[in-house]
Amino acid sequence: MILNGLGFVSRMLYLYSGYFEDKPVPQLLGNKTTPNHMDDNVLVRTLDKLFSLVVTDLFTKIAIQAISKLGINVKALHLDSTSFHVDGEYTSAIEQEEVRIQLVSGYSRDHRPDLNQVLLQLMTTSQSNLSLYMQAVDGNRNDKTVFCEIVAEHLKSFKEALDNRYFIGDSALYTEKTMQIFDKEQNLFITRVPMQINEAKTVIANVQQETMVDVGEGYKATQHILNYGNVKQRWVVVFSKAAYEKECHTLQKNFLKGSEKETREFLKIQKQEFKCASDVRKYLDKFLEKQKYIDVVDVKIIPVEKRNKAGRPKENEVIDIVGYRIEGFLVFQIEKKRKLEKQKGYFLLATNDLDSTTCPPREVLALYKAQQSVERGFRFLKSPDFLISSFFLKNKNV
């Protein structure tokens, strides 16, 4: 079944016995076993047995034994998640005394928000990229909550079994509750700091690139010691030249597209008529508060005049003012764009390893970049060559 799932063999269930006809089945599975025994009934009963044993726990036990047999020294564990969309008609009710994951809508990494999904949590080792832990959860579960549950439940056992030094994850791992668990268990972590945190914004805004140290491969870094979430930790500020160029290119495109849109909106406003001058000013102020890319200078409020009589106006004839409109010159917020460019290319890594001698910024960055081992696992699982990259449920009662 593993060979079939990995794509090395492609056989229907009822043809499985034929696959074993030229294999040394007695040596592999026992002297009394024959190819005829390896039919679809045996496979289904095996799957039922695996389900009853809790597949996640069984997988972890097998993985830990494999790591021990291979003599792999595990320095760090990497945790991440992805989503698999589901095609087909179905319901997702929980049957009595049987736990099922819920196939529901959620944040889609597959870029298919129109379809329901299931989430997969995956943990790998940094040195060998071996999968250590996999768990399927409801399609609408929040990564921050699930990661915290995994850390709370398995952190101590992984530490005892593997003696790993670091636990690494993306920004979903960076919550006060999760960090406090790491601190209590005296386990080191490395994770990305979410940029929504005010302290993170302040650090990035105040960083001086000329004081940063070159750590190779187009990266520069500096560090700060602080206390966040009642956990003393070290924040490593990293500048990436490649990320800077990419983000500035995106910023330029956004400014061009956004300024064109806001210009069209202002041109429409210029054609509008307002009943009084104060209404014009209030409307313009509210409009400018919402604009990100343009500003209006030399604003003038022009009266809209109208004569009630046809023909040439007389010398002292009074002309009625029926409304007011706006005139002004558009300018682009170049200074704002420059300020935003200065903040591009930066990201923050947090660790409770305060010893910058044994684990300098260069090492913190290298360990975090090894997070790609989990992403490679996801790419494999979603590859067209992997036969269960998608779920197709035909029966609406499943």
β-strand percent reads 15-25%
Helical content (DSSP H or I, runs of 4+): 25-40%
Number of strands: 12
Coarse shape = elongated
Mind describing the biggest β-sheet?
10 strands, mixed
Topology as H/E string? HHHHHEEEHEHEHEEEHHEEHEHHE
Question: Measured on Cα atoms, how large is the radius of gyration?
Answer: 31 Å
Quick check: average pLDDT? 85
Class from helix and strand fractions: alpha+beta
Low-confidence stretches: 394-398
Supply the number of helical segments.
13
Distance between the termini: 22 Å
Explain the overall architecture.
This protein is 38% helix and 25% strand. With 398 residues, it is of the alpha+beta class. The strands form two sheets. Strands 1, 2, 3, 4, 5, 6, 7, 8, 11 and 12 form a ten-stranded mixed beta sheet that branches. It has a two-stranded antiparallel sheet with strand order 9-10. The chain starts with a helix and ends in a 5-residue tail after the last strand. Residues 394-398 have low confidence and may be disordered.
Features:
single chain, 398 residues, ten-stranded mixed β-sheet, two-stranded antiparallel sheet, 13 helices, 25% strand, disordered C terminus
Write the layout of secondary structure elements.
Layout: H1 2-5, H2 16-19, H3 25-29, H4 40-52, H5 55-70, E1 76-88, E2 117-125, E3 131-138, H6 143-162, E4 166-169, H7 176-185, E5 188-192, H8 198-206, E6 213-216, E7 219-228, E8 231-240, H9 241-270, H10 277-290, E9 294-306, E10 320-332, H11 334-342, E11 346-351, H12 361-369, H13 372-381, E12 391-393
Parallel strand pairs: 1-4, 1-12, 4-5
Antiparallel strand pairs: 1-2, 2-3, 5-11, 6-7, 7-8, 8-11, 9-10
Helix pairs in contact: 6-7
